[in-house]
Amino acid sequence: MSEHSTYNPANGVEKWLDDRLPVVRFTKEHLMDFPTPKNLNYWWTFGAILAMCLGVQIVTGIILAMHYTPNVEMAFDSVEHIRRNVNAGRELQAVHSVGASMFFFAVYVHIFRGLYFGSYKAPREILWILGVTIFILMMATAFMGYVLPWGQMSFWGATVITNIFSAIPIVGDPILQLLRGGFAVDNPTLNRFFSLHYLLPFIIAALVVLHIWALHVPGNNNPIGVEVKSSRDTVPFHPYYTMKDAFAMVVFLIPFAWFVFFAPDILGHPDNYIQANSQVTPTHIVPEWYLLPFYTILRAIDFNVLFIDSKLGGVIAMGGALLILLVLPWLDRSPVRSGNFRPMFRWFYWLFVLNFITLTYLGAQPAEGTYVLIAKICVAYYFAYFIIILPVLARIEVPKPLPASISESVLGKANA
Amino acid sequence: MDGDHILATQAEHQPTRRDFLYVATGSVAAVGAAAVTWPLINQLNPDASTLALATIEFNLNGIEEGQTVTILWRGLPVFVRHRTAADIEEAKAVPLSDLKDPETDEERTKPGHEQWLVMIANCTHLGCVPVGESGDFDGWFCPCHGSHYDTAGRIRRGPAPLNLVVPPYEFLSDTLIQIG
Fold first, then answer.
1. Residue B11: pLDDT band by 50, 70, 90 thresholds?
2. Where in this chain does the record put each Cytochrome b/b6 C-terminal region profile domain (chain A) (predicted)?
3. pTM for the full model?
4. Which CATH number is B86's domain given?
């Protein structure tokens, strides 16, 4: 990508550095001069917002670890200690826990933007796969972080989620004991979760670097999904998108700050302010809101399918709901990227969004009565969207005519 | 030129002593790497202090008919229920064909002590502790994902695949059991 570079070392020192470690050149090429489609809308600012979220979680997380104690006798109290005694501890802990929710809100927007505008299609498959991997690691990290305060939801969430592995035939139970370090979730489990919760964000950060690398090879997708054809279609990343992203971050921080200062616990669950008790399960156990859609899929399978029992079936469905995203670029073969030009796709897409929100809602409801039936219908649609609807649409849909270029679509034909 | 020539002809030959040494060295390195990795993984397994709590004794004296107590064994909650005559009758009346994980009531209790039901109190779905004397079958109901168990702790409806697990235990006397 050196062809984008306008970097000319200004003096002898810069020249000397550039010949040995071209870090200034790299920064200029990738963070300043990078040619970016000039029609990106605000949905595209969530990449930068996500980078900010990761930074916020890492900084507040490192600080919380200075005051937290990963031991079953002390963990619960040490979190209360942070909230009551540590200087600005109430705010720091709130930023971290609210930050997790904001992080997931942003990642869902980012993923659904990619789904609508076909950002997963060639030549961006690797970019998409790295993103899905980051999303899965985020869920693992958030889950382990939620265990650390050692409240009732922490404990029972850990019990339920680690139990998922016991569904694996034959080796399930040995794996379960290996993960927990015992016959039940206990002190060894808490210790290793703390260790891994500290490690995973840095692995996520490394994957984010690869994600951006994979973005900078083909360049950004854009709202019309037509590739950049000339330098007239682009503007330099800085200052145009650094400013747009910065503005979006500020707007994003407004609800973030509202939660932190006025309702830090509203997204949590009251049962998590009761210390973990291995003998009593809360009557209504729910994961954090951002895991609910997948939780609904897990428990919607309450029937045996051939030799697969209901438990393994639920685990396969939940895992499949995530893993199917990895092969999405090969399921949707429509050559048109942007949903703006796909009249039939748009209906199914918005139904998919509604379906996903319904899955989230159902995860917070008890597994009984009509909820179970609706959950099964929603799970069916979730998979049908990927396995049936997208492949069929690629064959039968007649897309609207595409603009010749980004410039034409921005300026109108007269000025193109 | 000579060097190139020698390399080219060697590639066509049978494996040489040198090839053998390469493969042998590589194999030893692979075994060594695996041997080093195993303790790094095995440290995650239950440690000696966890394994030491394997057997406990429990006195049934204070449990009234119709009462259930929860005790801890190996860190796991265990239900000990003193069943009523109605419980037992209801469990025995169920035909095996109605069961997802067919087991008779006799198979889940000890002969002569059928009023006592001892089970690990974790739902076989994902491990929550079911709530006693509730659900559609008068046994247990798991609030997490809606599994219903009957008065013998057998799965009747919901995502759980198996009956509540009966741990290995025996009656040392009429009122004393040893679990594990």
1. low
2. 227-404
3. 0.87
4. 2.102.10.10
Domain span at A317: 35-415
CA angle B121, B124, B125 (to 5 degrees): 125
Q: Is B26 on the interface with A (CB under 8 A)?
A: no
Question: Which residues on chain A are in Cβ contact (under 8 Å) with B160?
Answer: 310-311
Cβ–Cβ contact A368 with B under 8 A: yes
Interface pTM, i.e. ipTM: 0.75
Mean pLDDT of A369-376: 92
Q: Are B177 and B169 in contact (CB under 8 A)?
A: yes
B76 and A186: CB-CB below 8 Å? no
Total domain count, chain A: 1
Do B19 and B73 have their domain in common? no
B158: nearest CB among A163, A281, A302? A302
Q: Between chains, do B72 and A278 touch, taking CB under 8 Å as contact?
A: yes
Same domain, B31 and B109: no
One domain, residues B76 and B23: no
The first and second tokens of residue A163, run together, are 């139990």
Is it the case that residue B2 has pLDDT exceeding 70? no
Q: Do B134 and B113 share a structural domain?
A: yes
Q: Is A38 exposed, middle or buried (0-12, 13-18, 19+ CB in 10 A)?
A: middle
* CATH for A42: 1.20.810.10
Summarised one tens digit per residue, pLDDT across range A274-303 is 999 988 888 777 899 999 999 999 988 877
Domain that holds residue B147: 49-179
Distance from CA of B42 to the nearest CA of A (A): 8
Contact list in A for residue B142 (CB cut-off 8 A) is 281
pLDDT tens across B17-49, in order? 999 999 999 999 999 999 999 999 999 998 888
CA distances from B55 to A182, A266, B50, B166 (A): 15, 44, 12, 15
Q: Distance between terminal CA atoms of chain A?
A: 27
